[in-house]
Amino acid sequence: MPLVRISLHAGKPADYRRALGDGVHRAMVEALGVPAQDRFQVITEHDADGLIADPNYLGIARTDDVVLVQITLGVGRKLAQKRAFFARAAELLAARPGLKPQELVINLVEVAWENWSYGDGKAQYAE
Question: Catalytic positions, please?
Answer without folding.
Answer: 2
